[in-house]
Amino acid sequence: MAERHRVVILGGGFGGLAAARRLKRAPVSVTLVDRCNYHLFQPLLYQVATGTLSPANIAAPLRGILKKQKNTEVLLAEAIHVDAAKRRVILSDGWLDYDTLIVATGATHQYFGHDEWEQFAPGLKTIEDATDIRRRILLAFETAEREPDPAKIRAWMTFVIVGGGPTGAELAGALGEIANDTLRHDFRRIDPTKAEIILVEGMDHVLHTYPAKLSAAARRMLERLGVTIRTGTMVTNVTADSVTIRDGTRTETIPTRTVLWAAGVLGSPLGRTLAQEAGAQLDRAGRVIVEPDLTIPGHPEIFVIGDLANFGHQTGKPLPGVAQPAIQEGRYAAKAIIQRLRGEKIEPFHYFDKGNLATLGRAAAVADLNWLRLSGLPAWLIWLFVHLLYIVEFKNRLLILLQWAYLYVTYDRSARLITGKSPLPLDL
Ligand SMILES: Cc1cc2nc3c(=O)[nH]c(=O)nc-3n(C[C@H](O)[C@H](O)[C@H](O)COP(=O)(O)OP(=O)(O)OC[C@H]3O[C@@H](n4cnc5c(N)ncnc54)[C@H](O)[C@@H]3O)c2cc1C
């Protein structure tokens, strides 16, 4: 195995894992590096944040997934630098040499130059983020129940979500259901159905990448759940107890204790390393602009895939930061490595767009399958099926299906736990 071509994959998300699996029978030695010991199914993170699912339902240990793949080792490590000249990845606690490198460390949200907002308006990217958001949402209702001052109760029961893309819309829909259904009868002093859920979006529509008819349908479904939608509206400030928004020339400060951030994209810091060390070009979001074969100019041995890559060769625009491009790019990079070893010609990467799905609450979703556009129950059933299909472990698939069925029948979200350090005394 020592003389084999060494492929190092950074990141065991959708892209990195797809690449590793595609190399299963290849005559190479694969090292998959991730700073978490699990693969996370991010599309269902919002269900952890809103108490429907537990963290373990949407994560699967990387070691377990790849245990039968004999040519592959999994390392728990953080990559902090790439020395492209030496073909070496520097870890926070060591290094790894490679012949081919696949960088799939993803992206996160960004605060557009206002990183100080992050402490008040957390984003949703990791399991820790999801349990922190869950804690904030549940604590807001608990504190409102104990708070005597009506103005403060109002602020605790106002939830502002910034960003009307799929994550923001899904969070808003789930919050609407929590307030109107799940918690409806749980409190004695406050009425959870009076909670105000405000979705703020800078563009003119929510889900603006969807066809106009579907984004209009999404708006109606969210409004039915009691969500107030403020489109064409920018956030200009966030503090511990308010958010300030601007709509044209009108500025308004909304008292709120819970702001959730679902806007902006920022490529992983490894993109900047590749720019410094290997001359890669970055776009404004810090994503690496890749060649038609997903490598970086002058370095055919470095592939960049998934959310960290900006592949604009097909439509002139970067591919969307969703799971399908990452998976297809991961498979392509693996195949390209195999073909190169065989001395075969490599075709440029081509993305096959299977469409987009977003769910907006109970039996409500939008589906743009390119050849078919649906909203409501049929779209929700497709959403359900597709998400179950892509969950990595069979056990999790089964558990999630059971929990969804239970939620559907009872409206109950059983993972409504406030975890972490004690929240007491409450901030009254
Ligand atoms: C809340 C949320 C909801 C979403 N909903 C949908 C959806 O409904 N449908 C859809 O298609 N897509 C959705 N997406 C987007 C989708 O999850 C991403 O497009 C996809 O995960 C990108 O895959 P990736 O492999 O590029 O990166 P990721 O899946 O983010 O994987 C990156 C991996 O790299 C690891 N890593 C990062 N930095 C380092 C480092 N320095 N060293 C070692 N390891 C590192 C991370 O731990 C992670 O495992 C959603 C994303 C989020 C956050």
- Order of strands across the biggest sheet? 5-2-1-9-21-20
Which stretches are low in confidence, meaning pLDDT under 50 for 5 or more residues running?
A: none
Rounded to an integer, what's the Rg over CA atoms?
22 Å
Number of strands: 25
What is the percent of helical residues?
25-40%
Derived from helix and strand composition plus strand pairing, the structural class reads alpha/beta
Strand content: 15-25%
The unique ligands bound to this protein are: flavin-adenine dinucleotide
Distance, first to last CA:
62 Å
Shape: globular
- Largest beta-sheet details: 6 strands, mixed
Q: What is the overall number of helices?
A: 11
Average residue-wise pLDDT = 95
Itemize the secondary structure elements and their pairings.
Blueprint: E1 5-10, H1 14-22, E2 28-34, E3 38-40, H2 45-49, E4 59-61, H3 62-65, E5 72-76, E6 79-83, E7 88-91, E8 94-97, E9 100-103, E10 107-108, H4 127-146, H5 150-156, E11 158-162, H6 166-182, E12 196-200, H7 212-224, E13 227-230, E14 234-239, E15 242-247, E16 250-255, E17 258-261, E18 266-267, H8 270-278, E19 288-289, E20 295-296, E21 299-304, E22 309-310, H9 323-341, E23 356-359, E24 365-368, E25 373-375, H10 377-390, H11 394-410
Parallel strand pairs: 1-2, 1-9, 2-5, 9-21, 11-12, 11-17, 12-13, 19-22
Antiparallel strand pairs: 3-4, 6-7, 7-8, 10-18, 14-15, 15-16, 20-21, 23-24, 24-25
The structure holds flavin-adenine dinucleotide.
Flavin-adenine dinucleotide (FAD) is lined by residues 10-16, 33-36, 42-43, 45-46, 78-79, 104-106, 124-125, 166-167, 268, 270, 306-308, 321-324, 326.
